[in-house]
């Protein structure tokens, strides 16, 4: 849920990936026989995946290997600190510009979706901007959760384009959590629901994760859609 410094993340990963890069230098294929080989490959793959997710897939692997070799051999740096700082700052600025443009586009798309969705019959728009529609109602008089309660739900979460990012339904395992420990849109909706209700929530970015991203599956400034079924409230099962 916290914004990462992309360049710092790459720097922190460089030492871990050194074994993989160096062992592959000058070879077309590295044999993965021993546990050390396999763990080294796994580390390298994870680091590479992280770089790709952060938009750093264009980094020069051969140059990374050269830097690692020089450092491990205790050779003098081929570039001055001034040159390195300038290069890192430029890459960081480019990445920040790309991320800002993407975030702004996500926000625009979410706002457009919610505007049209709020006009549909059966959709209720709350003052906060949260939207919901009732898919199924529980029994009259069933218990309702308070912000301090623990609840168990089934849910299915998607982006506005239908991409699934999380689903207890798909996992076949309900989720239990404190009402006050989730995103604002859920906190507001859960306290309005009663056990047995199943609602579809349309959550604006500011009531979800806002400018932060909890995972690569949820871009920053995304409006989110959840189907939520309230199964039980701890201590209020009856």
UniProtKB/TrEMBL annotation:
Gene3D superfamilies according to UniProt: 3.10.50.40, Peptidyl-prolyl cis-trans isomerase, FKBP-type, N-terminal domain
Record key words, sorted: Isomerase, Rotamase, Signal
Key word Membrane present: no
One matching Pfam family: FKBP_N
Protein name: Peptidyl-prolyl cis-trans isomerase
Catalytic activity: [protein]-peptidylproline (omega=180) = [protein]-peptidylproline (omega=0)
InterPro entries the record matches: PPIase_dom_sf (IPR046357), PPIase_FKBP_dom (IPR001179), PPIase_FKBP_N (IPR000774), PPIase_FKBP_N_sf (IPR036944)
The EC number(s) this enzyme carries: 5.2.1.8
Domain PPIase FKBP-type: 148-234
GO molecular function, one term: peptidyl-prolyl cis-trans isomerase activity
Record GO biological process: protein folding
Family under the similarity heading: Belongs to the FKBP-type PPIase family.
PANTHER family membership: FKBP-TYPE 22 KDA PEPTIDYL-PROLYL CIS-TRANS ISOMERASE (PTHR43811:SF23), FKBP-TYPE PEPTIDYL-PROLYL CIS-TRANS ISOMERASE FKPA (PTHR43811)
């Amino acid at each position: 849920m916290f914004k990462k410094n992309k360049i710092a993340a790459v720097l922190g990963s460089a030492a871990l990936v050194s074994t993989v890069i160096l062992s592959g230098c000058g070879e077309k294929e590295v044999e993965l026989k021993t546990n050390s080989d396999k763990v080294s490959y796994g580390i390298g793959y994870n680091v590479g995946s992280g770089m790709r997710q952060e938009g750093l897939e264009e980094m020069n692997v051969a140059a990374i290997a050269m830097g690692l070799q020089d450092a491990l051999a205790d050779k003098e740096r081929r570039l001055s600190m001034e040159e390195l700082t300038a290069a890192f700052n430029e890459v960081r600025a480019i990445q920040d510009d790309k991320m800002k443009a993407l975030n702004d586009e996500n926000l625009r798309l979410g706002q457009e979706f919610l505007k049209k969705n709020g006009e549909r019959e059966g959709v209720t728009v709350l003052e906060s901007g949260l939207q919901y529609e009732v898919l199924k109602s529980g029994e009259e008089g069933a218990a309702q959760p308070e912000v301090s309660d623990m609840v168990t739900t089934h849910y299915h979460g998607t982006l506005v384009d239908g991409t699934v990012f999380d689903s207890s339904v798909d996992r076949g395992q309900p989720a239990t959590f404190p009402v006050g420990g989730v995103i604002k849109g859920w906190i507001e909706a859960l306290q309005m629901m009663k056990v047995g209700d199943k609602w579809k929530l349309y959550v604006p970015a500011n009531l979800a994760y806002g400018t932060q991203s909890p995972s690569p599956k949820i871009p920053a400034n995304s409006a989110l859609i959840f189907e939520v079924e309230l199964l039980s409230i701890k201590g209020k099962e009856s």
